[in-house]
Amino acid sequence: MGDPKSRTSEATDAELIAQWQGGDQRAATALVSRHAQSLGRFAASLGEREGIDELVQDTFVRAFQSLDTFRADSSLRTWLFTICKRLVLDRKRSERRRRNQVELDEGHAVVEYDALDGMVAEEAAGRVERAVAKLTPLQREVFSLRVTEGLPYGEIAKVVDSTEGACRVHYHNAMRLIKEYLSDD
Amino acid sequence: MTECLNEDLRDLLPLLAHGSLSAADAGRVRAHMAGCAACAAELSLLQSAAAHLEASAPALDLAAITQGVQTALAQGRPALRVVPGELPAGAAAPRGAAAPPRRTWVPRQYLAAAATILVVVSLAIPFTGRNGEDPVAAPTATGPAAATDTPSVPVAESGGGTPGAAAAREALVATDGLSDLTDADLEALLDELETLEATVSAEPGTMRRAIVNTPGGI
Ligand SMILES: [Zn+2]
Fold this sequence. Notes:
The structure holds 2 protein chains of 2 kinds. Chain A is mainly α. Chain A folds into 2 domains: 11-105, RNA polymerase sigma factor, region 2, helix turn helix motif (Rna Polymerase Sigma Factor, Chain: A, Orthogonal Bundle), CATH 1.10.1740.10; 115-185, Arc Repressor Mutant, subunit A. Helix content of chain A is 75%, strand content 0%. Chain A contains 10 helices and no strands. Chain B is elongated, with a radius of gyration of 30 Å. By secondary structure, chain B is an all-alpha fold. Chain B has 7 helices and no strands. In chain B, helix 1 (7-18) runs parallel beside helix 3 (37-56) and helix 5 (108-124) packs across helix 7 (183-196).
């Protein structure tokens, strides 16, 4: 395959990483193009609604800066998810701290804000959307990784810091709850 | 909605909805669904859920993200717009990444102070080492824990160095049989102390992808 463009589009993640480390900037672009949307979806499933471009960008920067810690036993995408998740958790922590500070400064209670509740209210969501929104954050995360990213349970377990068996249970519980919600609706 | 009892097959439904099943597996699932209304309904539900999750994902500006990544890497700085200083080291090495070496550099005065405590404790209570060994007597100057084997700790300077170390040495000299302790010995004692406190948190070594990192190489 002599055409460099088709070479990057067909290359595996490992090949692209090697190309980038060899100085080929197109490889980084290809990796971003390949995984950015998944990261954006994943961030949304974690309740993030704003600044997702920055989050995705920071995830890639972190990843490229620490490629030597990338282990061969998980896919690059799974690894990117774990970095993204850590950034999201960090964001939530600092947001919580900021809100607490506002509460202290202004002397009033801040109502705990569930990003997904807001999202669902805004969207006048349909039945399935509402059902998904009823899941616990962990169920939603596992369900989303399984359904929209098609990840094997073993890879999901790495992202959510759990076991393969537990993730399987979370997925099936999520499915059962969605069905129950729909039959009650 | 009744559920299909074929759990293994149901497990493949989200992957069929996602489009990531092999042709063979997809054929197998479709053949099953032809006679299983529950699985057919579940697939339909999964497709709706996937469509919703896709639709609720934000539209990304890929060009800007790519540009931002390349700029941040060219400048060699971490992109810390999230909250500077808050991201733990684990973000660069997330869960599953290789753990840093268990041993960390410890200032000699802390080694000495901790060793002093250990000596006091060992005098106060009858001490029994693991496997019947005496961990205090074992690491002598000719023992296996020679300074050259412990690169994480600075090599001992002659004369004893800091006042803290000197104080500890005095304490050790007062204790019969412990006056010859080197820094390596002190570290070995510390290791033993850690073991006794059951604080070991090392992760097993991990296989790393054989790629040499070239920071800022983009
Ligand atoms: Zn079935």
